[in-house]
Amino acid sequence: MSDRAWVAARVQGVAHVNAPRTTEVLRRQLLRDEVYDALLDMLLDQRLAPGGSLSIDGLARELGVSPTPVREALAFLEHTGLVVRTALKGYAVAPHPGAEQLGHLMEARSVLEIEALRRAVAREGLLAGRLREAHAGHEAAAAAMVDAWGPASPPPAVVMRHYFEADWAFHLSIVEASGNPYLRDMLQGLGTHLHRLVQSAGRGVTDWQAALAEHGRILRAVEGGDPDQAVAAMAEHLAGVRERAVDDTLALAGRVADRT
Amino acid sequence: MSDRAWVAARVQGVAHVNAPRTTEVLRRQLLRDEVYDALLDMLLDQRLAPGGSLSIDGLARELGVSPTPVREALAFLEHTGLVVRTALKGYAVAPHPGAEQLGHLMEARSVLEIEALRRAVAREGLLAGRLREAHAGHEAAAAAMVDAWGPASPPPAVVMRHYFEADWAFHLSIVEASGNPYLRDMLQGLGTHLHRLVQSAGRGVTDWQAALAEHGRILRAVEGGDPDQAVAAMAEHLAGVRERAVDDTLALAGRVADRT
DNA sequence: CTAGCCTCCTTCCTATAGGATCTGCGATCT
DNA sequence: AGATCGCAGATCCTATAGGAAGGAGGCTAG
Fold first, then answer.
1. Is A237 helix (H, G, I), strand (E, B) or coil?
2. Which pLDDT tens digit goes with each residue over A77-98?
């Protein structure tokens, strides 16, 4: 589904849609996809404020394209729930999910991931290998993040994003190994919302140690070939993620309330 | 998500996009949504052959609109998987899912529906009432369909469609009663694929008796307040649906194979 | 002097026409 | 026979006109 765009954006690195197209016009990509990637980056980076209106013409001017591809990219984004469209008023960035929405999101995620894990373990396929690989990537990303964490200076955004993606890749590898493309697509659809959440609430990864430890437990259970233990470890992990996310959200809400 | 378009299309009845717009221009809807509804109807009615290419200009001419709203509606449809888009070649109707895809589809559906049912029963909310209502509607639609079934003359398409929607509404009411909008949206996303499947494979409803009986068992278990029994009944129903669908698909494949 | 209403203006969305580019196929030349 | 060139078809993007919705400002009545 949206794998292509995602992967493309990640692999070949966002491709400077603003660059002047004087030279090297060879191998022109589809403009709509580049606009889509650019908008997705803006949305996940919080460069577009939630609730703010999205002007088609304004975005077109900003990106240096005509309104048509912008309109198309927005129609594509509308299906993800990151932007909403009202009758004749245009598009707007979807407001932040509250605590209730967060609970629903984590519940839906649990349903998918736990059942996917059960099936992936039962298939006895290449789950253990991929999971080990993803876990190694996650550990490396965490190490890089800690390494870049100077005294009272948060790591650059690209490092944070790399950590988030490595964490997420661990979970994606499970639904991937379940062999069911529909389960994978549904979890990926939830992924954008989750990304936005952690980017907004935490504004900094504070739970990488807990996440790595819990991932490690899942991995060991899978390697041991114990489905029930793996599912239990996954449920524990998701409960932990949810609890920590709720704490962060409440802290954020408190900060916002103090400010008013 | 796509509820709006769906509901609108069903409630206010597909709104004749081809109608000449000479008079009664009052209450002008968004053209993009009408095109979307029209395309969705064409896709689910098999009026657009799977694998066939979708010309933007051709569709625009056929619907009497400019290419712009058609392009937007296609971009919106692309996210549902009913149409696919290749680099610079344009859109095409997604090919029919084979037996393997069907299995994945039913598996994903089972994951969602069973867990949603478990949560809906636990919430002790208005599930029983809505479920009873949906079941009554399903029975009525089945009766109407049987009534319209003359000797060797299938019922008109609108009656068949009404039956399908009543059947599906039973399942949707469960995820709706789970209280989780994400679970509901995900199942609705699978719904379009399922619709297309039953329309293509069965080409006639042959299992309405079994479906009604199994639905009744689910309803009674819910009314009795027994979660495990309700889940068991649902699992049984989904297994039955899957088995019958596979039979139909194999029969269809056999017919196609005979023809070649 | 203030509150309500009307008018104008800016902004945005919709829709159309047209130019530029890419693909596929057939004819021609080596 | 194989490869190259040219033409038709389609797609994608741009540019622009027309129309509707929302907001700001001024005018009038109390």
1. helix
2. 988 889 988 867 788 888 888 8
Q: Do B80 and A79 touch (CB under 8 A)?
A: yes
List the B90-93 sheet strands across, edge first: B53-54, B90-93, B83-86
Nearest CA in chain A to B30: A87
Cβ neighbours, 10 Å, residue A107: 20
Q: Whose structure tokens read 């920590």?
A: A244
Residue numbers in A near B71 (CB within 8 A): 68, 72
Range picked from A104-113, B14-23, B41-50, B248-257 for highest mean pLDDT: A104-113
CA atoms within 13 A of residue B80's CA, in its CB half-sphere: 28
What six digits make up the tokens of B160? 């068949």
Residues packed against strand C, CB within 7 Å:
A 28, 55-58, 67-68, 71, 88-91; B 30-32, 60, 65-69, 87-89
| Cα–Cα distance measured from residue B243 to residue A95, given in angstroms and rounded to the nearest whole number | 43
The 3-state DSSP class for residue A86 equals strand
Q: Which residues of A touch B180 (CB under 8 A)?
A: 104, 107-108
Mean per-residue pLDDT for A242-254?
Answer: 76
- Is the CB atom of residue A90 positioned under 7 angstroms from any atom of strand D? no
> Which is it for the CA torsion A166, A171, A175, A178, positive or negative?
positive
B43-68 residue pLDDT tens: 888 888 888 888 888 888 888 888 88
pLDDT confidence tier of residue A29, bands split at 50, 70 and 90: low
CB contact under 8 A, A79 and B111: no
Answer for the pair B135, B219: CB distance below 8 angstroms, yes or no.
Answer: yes
